[in-house]
Amino acid sequence: MRDSVDDFLDQWAALRSDLDLEAMGAVGRLLRLTRLVDKEVGRYFAEHGMERWEFDVLATLRRSDRPLTPKELAANVMVSSAALTNRIDRLAARSLVAREAVPGDRRSLHVTLTDAGRRLVDSTVEGHVRNERRMLAELDAEDCEELNRLLRTLVNTLEGGR
Amino acid sequence: MRDSVDDFLDQWAALRSDLDLEAMGAVGRLLRLTRLVDKEVGRYFAEHGMERWEFDVLATLRRSDRPLTPKELAANVMVSSAALTNRIDRLAARSLVAREAVPGDRRSLHVTLTDAGRRLVDSTVEGHVRNERRMLAELDAEDCEELNRLLRTLVNTLEGGR
DNA sequence: AGCGAATCATTCGACGTCGAACTATCTCTC
DNA sequence: GAGAGATAGTTCGACGTCGAATGATTCGCT
To answer: Does B139 sit within 8 Å of A22, measured CB to CB?
Structure first.
């Protein structure tokens, strides 16, 4: 079975047979697959009247099970702290999170989940994960494990130390 | 060996043991890994005085080995046609591509690589692929093949038909 | 204690992308 | 062959993000 990236690789092979097709293929598929997954995830949340970035922030707070500072949130969600200020503003306006003072350091603050925010995450996370599973449906249990093993290795490599 | 996504999964497991960790892990790693790869690729091109999007467009033209319409380019690069107009403008301003009339359809046009554009792609693609290989260095040949197999399956699934 | 460096969140300006509207051209049908 | 609808690329307005600058507070060193 071939995929669209194979076509892409064939084109390069015809012109520059010196290139490392295995590497190009892996990275190419990674990027393409992520775009497709992103789109599908976005579609799911849109159907549930939510945006992807809202879930990212709320879910990070939920799974951490404690208030987080904007800095911690930014690191988890992988956006700039400027973007986070904006996101917190909008979530707070809808009363899904609240800003609270952090005792002992007035530079910083704690972002907490409100009850409404927590209810919203809890009610969407299940369907979201089901949707993720559905996207992997073509992989049997063994393949899925193998995929996780390979990706884990790469994540570790690129995250540097750890 | 564990990675940062394992921590993330542990947090969910502690609170919601009903969730499908295998699926969350795979998708989570996919997204995280792509971010890391993106950053590294960006770093490489920045070092060579180039931006990622420039390479994307030029490389698509190069490997196609023929003039492409903006519509074809947009599909390959996965951005809107509006974004493509902007990119072509900027590449044309630097004389890396040229717009030419397409015979028989005056609505459309052909984007062609100039000699300078072609030289630029050819001189950077090699190092770029070497860099990609370097990111996969932890995987032996067999693992790399396996990764491509798994990703190919998923790309095919999510691309629908084909 | 006190002063400079470091750290934190926010604000600001610039930039790239998107979807929608727009113009021009082509195609299909009667 | 003429008109309706489809299709191509571009323009426009809105939006979210980023890096840099800002203001407030804390830490480290002597």
So the answer is: no
